[in-house]
Amino acid sequence: MASGCRIGPSILNSDLAALGAECTRMMDCGADYLHLDVMDGHFVPNLTFGHPVVESLRKQLGQEPFFDMHMMVAKPEQWVKPMAVAGANQYTFHIEATENAGALIKDIRENGMKVGLAIKPGTTVEYLAPWANQIDMALVMTVEPGFGGQKFMEDMMPKAGANMIVSGSAVMKSDDPRAVINLLRNVCCEAAQKRSLDR
Q1: In the chain, alpha helices (H)
Q2: Alpha helix (H) ranges present in 29-122?
């Protein structure tokens, strides 16, 4: 992935009948990675797709796109190996969904993937702190997990500084996804520079 501020469209609100083409369109519009929302109908009420779809996308798109799997599932331990075999690059699980984050982190690494750790809006950022040195990315949700198209929760911004932005509807439903991706990247980079200067 590109260095600095990275933008990953969530493909949840794409045209699912043309998912491969939608992913290609996002990469062609300047996306740095693809964010794939996996929901099991238990951890969140909605249901999306699983490792067979990821495997199909990997075969169609090749090895280049970085797949960040956002696992909104009740048993994240269950899906590590299938997602690794399917071609996932990063496995992002919710701290709220596991009793043993350390063992899960180890399993993800042993299966050759990067580790992401997510928290819901109602979970304080302190729950991420014990794992900060063992993960590659922290995902601070700015919407409730489970549904696309929600309004951004601005009050989540103080939880963490961001250098990776996931955006669904704003990018996928835009008439000009490239412009939205560039805007998000520029705003993110400007905020990161400001944080550096404020230190």
Answers
A1: 19-28, 51-61, 80-86, 101-110, 169-172, 177-198
A2: 51-61, 80-86, 101-110
For residues 75 and 78, give the distance between their C-alpha atoms in angstroms, rounded to a whole number. Answer: 6
Stated pTM of the model: 0.88
Say how many C-beta atoms besides its own lie within 10 A of residue 159's C-beta: 18
Nearest to 69 by CA among 59, 56, 79, 60: 79
For the segment 10-36, what is each residue's pLDDT rounded down to a tens digit?
998 899 999 999 999 999 999 999 999
In whole angstroms, give the CA distance from residue 71 to residue 111: 16
Structure tokens of 56?
């199909």
**Amino acid (1-letter code) at residue 82:** P
